[in-house]
Amino acid sequence: MTGVQTCALPISFTRTSANSIYNSGQISVERKAGDVTFLAAYTSAKALDDSSAFNDLVNFENPKLSRGLSSTDITHNFVASYIWAIPFDRAFGNAPKRLTQGWQMQGITRFSTGFPIQMNQSTGDASLVGSPATDMPNVVGKIVTVNPRDPNPNCPTTDGTGCYFLPNAFAVNTTLGTFGTANRRFFHGPGFNNTDFGLLKRTVIKENLAFDLRIEFFNIFNHAQFINPSGDIINSSFGIVTNARDPRIDRKSVV
User: Fold this and answer.
1) What is the pLDDT of residues 87-111, one digit of tens each?
2) Residue partners of 206: CB distance under 8 A and separation at least 6
3) Is 179 left (phi over 0), alpha (psi -120 to 50) or beta?
């Protein structure tokens, strides 16, 4: 008797269709007065789609169920840049020009809301469609965001700190044949509060030759800027901040 061995191979299906919309209001101000140059811009926007960050998190049976905030949506974004040519040559008129000229202070400041948090329920396949990552948890309460630094009795960590949103607003979806009531993205994570600052001294050696000394500080105020917590309700760190963006970085360069 000859045995016959079969091998089941996964079959994937990709539909090249998507829908997105973006609306925004933008304001910019630019001013140059004497030794100071200032540029500021503010954008208030909303972006919606059903397929950004394309992966199995898109509901392939009904993409409308996956429609929500775009992965890059930022509601409020304010950025200002500024340059001050320090007038040491006027303040110290008798000093050597190579010492007093070429000084410049510059910086970029940004305040903005964060990116949306991606929700999902990565295991269980309650929807019975063979793609558990498409499933979402159920919303069972009001979404409450808190400061990760502050202890909260509803934050499931040892000391009650670290939560960005309280997990008790969600519950695992166990109803077979359903996708869960949460939208894939419908609220934002931690925002940005960052200032980069630099001090430059340019010394002209001759007409086509100059010497630059630059000191730069990235995130000069060392403000903690948290990365989005996990939105996977199966993950043990659901709603809990585990990473932050770079702290203050100092850099010196000579060109």
Assistant:
1) 998 888 888 888 898 999 999 999 9
2) none
3) alpha
